[in-house]
Amino acid sequence: MKALNKMNNLDKAGLLSKMFPEELENLQNAIKMQCDYFLQNETAFREGWYQKGFFTAEFWYRLVQNAQKGIDKNEPLWKRPNWFTDHFFDGHHSIFAIQCLIEYTEDAQCDPQLKQAIHLLFGSDKFLQITLNDK
Q1: What number of CA atoms fall less than 13 Å from residue 104's CA on the CB side?
Q2: Residue 131: per-residue pLDDT
Q3: What is the DSSP letter of 104?
Q4: Domain ranges in the chain?
Q5: Chain centroid to CA 46
Q6: In sequence order, which residues have a C-beta less than 8 Å from that of residue 58 and are 6 or more positions away?
Q7: pTM higher than 0.90 for the full model?
Q8: Each residue's pLDDT tens digit in the chain (135 positions)?
Q9: Would you state the torsion angle of the CA atoms of residues 120, 84, 68, 55, taken in this order, to the nearest 10 degrees?
């Protein structure tokens, strides 16, 4: 096994899935909930988007849509841990997946040990702090 500081996001997600295989369905459901949330509120998010450069609303929504495609497959990705990690944690796609995992750690349903593992592997800082303005 690689040292933690030598691991990339695929390595970390693979380790997480091996340590908590019984939680993969919950993790995929958490990602699905975030996809649904962002897709349902897309207009408001795009209108209020303030970050410039690489992290544009268009880029973010490509990540959301990619995650949604994996979730919409006939066979749930969580049933195949390698597919799960490859789809959600390869390259830039990991940005959205990590955001979802960190969000999930705030849910009362999140197993405390899983929460610790997520924070150890991926940290506890979100990529995006988003609040919707009520009009």
Answers
A1: 31
A2: 54
A3: H
A4: 16-122
A5: 19
A6: none
A7: no
A8: 789 999 999 999 999 999 999 999 999 999 999 999 999 999 988 888 876 666 788 999 999 999 998 888 756 767 777 888 998 999 999 999 999 999 999 999 999 999 999 999 999 988 776 654 544
A9: 40
Residue type, 133: N
Q: Which pLDDT belongs to residue 47?
A: 84
b/e code 11-41 from CB counts within 10 Å (16+ = b): bbbbbbbeebeebbebbbbbbbebbebbeee
Dist CA 126 CA 104 (whole Å): 11
Give the helix/strand (H/E) hosting 49. none
Matching residue, tokens 């899935």: 17
The DSSP call for residue 128 is -
Helices (H), 49-80: 57-71
Question: For residue 45, which phi and psi values (nearest 5 degrees)?
Answer: -65, -45
Q: How far apart are CA 66 and CA 87, in angstroms?
A: 8
Residue with tokens 């490859």: 86
Contact 130, 61 (CB under 8 A): no
